[in-house]
Amino acid sequence: MQTGRTIIVAPNGARRGKDAHSQLPLTVDEMSTCLAQCADAGAAMAHMHVRDAHGKHSLDVGLNREWLTEIRARFDSRLVIQQTTEAIGQYQPSEQMALVRGTDPEAVSLALRELRPNASFEKEASRFFFELAERQIYVQYILYDAADLSLYFQMVNDKVLPNVGHHLLLVLGKYKKDMLSAPRDLLDFDIKRLSDEGISWATCAFGQNEHQCLSAAMSLSGDVRVGFENNLMNLIGQYADNNAELVQQITVLSQNMGLYINSVEDLRKNIFRSFES
């Protein structure tokens, strides 16, 4: 489906604040400044967490609609804006679904284990997943370990999950001590099967080994997600000036590896093709 690599920027996440880094964006205007820099640096997609007036992660439908409308008006020609539904132990599947239904994003990330925490949720989750495919909302299924990936394959095989209009995010190191990822964490996932079946995937990694992990993923045909949600340190172990510095370093690494970096136009072509059965 794709010949290049897509760089996704995750500028803020759900938990970090200004105490972690002064350039972590918490308002619409701060996010706009950040995304302009990241688009210039090579990002084609932005994974955006909406924060409320107190800087807290929020799935409020009205607030998310306001952010999405404003950010898309400013960046639709430069970035695909991906809405997050992360629960952070606070929101229920019904609230996550209501958010997406009430905002109609171009792209959305969904943790499979959050929308389908056990078999009793599967029927409603399946209905929701197929609804998003019908509406051609590009879904990124977030998978935290090999068990999540096995569940994904099972749900696709059982036709509980549509096999169009989505890709995967393999999260490295979420449940390791100190949340410190390493490139070998990719070995926990069946990358060969993903490649053999032509499934589009990306990875993100926690901590100072982020760039090494992402380089390994790119060498295996994966896309990458980079930014302050997962890591604050640059390649030489110092605090990055901003998110754009981390994006720029991945862009340079990709170029040094002889890899083509997808533009937003390339990404949207891939998204369009992903809905073809």
From TrEMBL:
Cited InterPro entries: Aldolase_TIM, BKACE
Source species, domain of life: Bacteria
Molecular-function GO terms, alphabetical: 3-keto-5-aminohexanoate cleavage activity; metal ion binding
Pfam families: BKACE
Co-factor(s): Zn(2+)
Ranges annotated as spanning the membrane: none
Keywords noted in UniProt: Metal-binding, Transferase, Zinc
Zinc-finger is among the record's keywords: no
Protein name, per record: Class III aminotransferase
Annotated organism of origin: Enterovibrio norvegicus FF-454
